Amino acid sequence: MITTRGDDRGSFRRRFRGGLILLYLRIAWYGFRRHSAYRSAAFAGAFTNAVFGILRAYVLIALWNARPGLAGYDLADAVTFCFLSQAFIGPMQLFGGGLELSGRVRSGDVAVDLVRPASLQLWSLADDVGRAAYLFLLRSLPPTAVGAALFGLVLPSGPAAWLSFTAGLALGVVVSFGWRYLVALSACWFMDDRGMQSLSLILTLFFSGMVLPLNLFPGWLGDLARALPWSAMVQVPADLYLGKRDILDALGFQAAWAVALLALGALATSAARRKVVIQGG
Amino acid sequence: MADTVRTYLLLAWTWLRASAQYPGPLITMAVGAFAINMLDVVAIWVIFEHTPSLAGFGLAEVMFLYGTSSLSFAVSDMLFGNLDRLSQHIRTGSFDAMLIRPASAFVQMAVDRFSVHRFGRITQAVIVLAIALPRLDLPWSRAWAVPPMILCGIVIFSSLFALAGAAQFLLTDAPEVANAFTYGGSTLTQYPLSVYGRDLVRGVTFVVPLAFVNWQPALFVLDRPDPLGLPYWLRFVSPLAALTLAAVAALAWRAGVRRYRSTGS
Hints:
Number of helices of chain B: 13
Strand content of chain A: under 5%
InterPro entries (chain B): ABC-2_transporter-like
Largest sheet of chain A: none
Transmembrane segments (chain A): 44-66, 78-96, 132-154, 160-179, 199-221, 251-272
Structural class of chain B: mainly alpha
Helix content of chain B: 55-70%
Largest sheet of chain B: none
Structural class of chain A: mainly alpha
Helix content of chain A: over 70%
Radius of gyration of chain A: 20 Å
Number of helices of chain A: 12
Distance between the termini of chain A: 14 Å
Strand content of chain B: under 5%
Order of helices and strands of chain A: HHHHHHHHHHHH
Transmembrane segments (chain B): 26-48, 54-75, 148-171, 200-220, 232-253
Keywords (chain B): Membrane, Transmembrane, Transmembrane helix
Number of domains of chain A: 1
Number of strands of chain A: 0
Oligomer: heterodimer
Distance between the termini of chain B: 34 Å
Protein name (chain B): ABC-2 type transport system permease protein
């Protein structure tokens, strides 16, 4: 068992509070830089996201041609939603992973991370924000440009919509991190995290709005999907972009889930600290 | 040929026994593969909650198209889906080891880490097809075309996987590009092609022959006129398209192996 020396950690924090913010900013920058090493992989991802965006857009076009104005979207809104959801795949890491943490739990290196004088959770968050910023540039903008060139996408109606969309995008990344952090840390309890990973993949794809816009889901399924955290990753930011939802209500919903997931993550981190057993040697 | 098949089966059996050492992850991954593909079916169901027909096709017909495409893709993914992971083996140097073993590198690549979880998707496709087929009330005079159609689909998707593998000799840094053609092809053929734009459909008919996985033969099975007005005989060219693509894939793979240079590390 690791015994953490709480007093030492506290005094460290008091002395370096100003430095800590700088530290996390620097980690975010390193996260950005580290991912920029994989530029061709990011472009390949952007290409694939664009191709799938085109295929999914045609299916939605066929549906909206049959039912114009369905679910409060017109045809252009639906196509825009499709390309936005494709653009979110990279920054929100909708297909899972993205955190080095899960590998470090499996290899046991997490034991070292847990005794560092900086919070493992905030450290990972800063790193993940850097990754998201990089992938936004390389994996979100190109597919959206392709969509705009081929189908003509809708633009946000004004500065308020742009601002609220930017805020919603940032909050979506935090919610996505909060969820993936919990999934990665779950490997401390389940010896094999692949089961959790695939469960998370299914929940994320289905309940975020990635498979279909959530306002198409009938009855209670739609209500349930709109209340769950995953909708904060695709449906809510997309609705902010399209101006289909009250701004404060939407941002409040995302912020509430971000706080809840981060709090759960903090609890899980302290539980993991007690759980982790370092094999000597 | 018989030798190759025997090597494949022997290696597959070896990998299966190895993976059976950890039954827990095996079961979760099979269930995961099953469930993740069920999401596609749920999406189709949600769409048909809002409309009785999509681009001129009803629920049972779309499920039939989905089932045939998915079954063909699942079988070829099980047999050859691992080929698109070639770039990993090139980067780590393990492909060099495969080249000097006394068995075909193609077979070793295809069968690498063969595991039961690859059956998860097949089960899902069979269930969808088993539900959709009886609802179509097909007479035998047209239903006979279903098994050859699935077989041709398997050959086409397998060739695409082999082409994707061959492309990795060039695209070591960007293996994801190949997914757009393999997984993209699977996604494309899950819906009636009348959904897509005219140019895209011509492209997947005459360039990458994805229209012959299920669309053209399904027009015969469902006895439908071609919404794009392409000639009637195209419905029966699937075997020819499949064999042509397989030949191209074989040539590409050979060319790739010949020009391959080890990373040397």
